[in-house]
Amino acid sequence: MERAEIPLASTTVEKLDAFAENLTEWNRIHNLTGAKTRDAINMQILDSIYPLTFLEAAPKNLLDIGSGAGFPGLILAIAWPDTQTTLCEPLHKRAAFLRFIARKLHLENVTVENRRVETLPARPYALITSRAVTETSALIDWSRPFIAEETQLLFYKGEQVFDEIEGLGACDIELISRNKRNYLWIKDASKC
Is the pTM of this model over 0.70? Predict the structure, then answer.
């Protein structure tokens, strides 16, 4: 985190470390993520938390679509304890892990929804995130019931993002690249 110039409180670092330790244990039995080693999990944590270097402020609330083993939604919830975070994950074993770790780390700001995002009741969110779920236009469509004035979208994408952003000219897009990750930041989703 220091090399990436991400300032974190010591309590945040402790919680991230506890998350990594528990995910390593759970992953041996339940196969929650492709990151099998502690180093691989730490790289996923850094990937998830890197947007703190460019986002202006912590949002009031956050919806993470397809949270998986907690990347990026749970990691952002740890970094932003005052942000009410909804983790939407349809797979039961992953949702069970997310509930377990939220309780274990005393993350009062986290709610886990074990369902597909299309069945989640509509309500506005300040920030909507997603990583490795589907292509950008589908993510925008799934996000529409949760978009209000000034809602931002942050999609963690790979190389395919360059093809996916064609036709999104009306959106206020910024693309931040780090290693092989492309962070697609849509600053005002109501324009999309």
Answer: yes
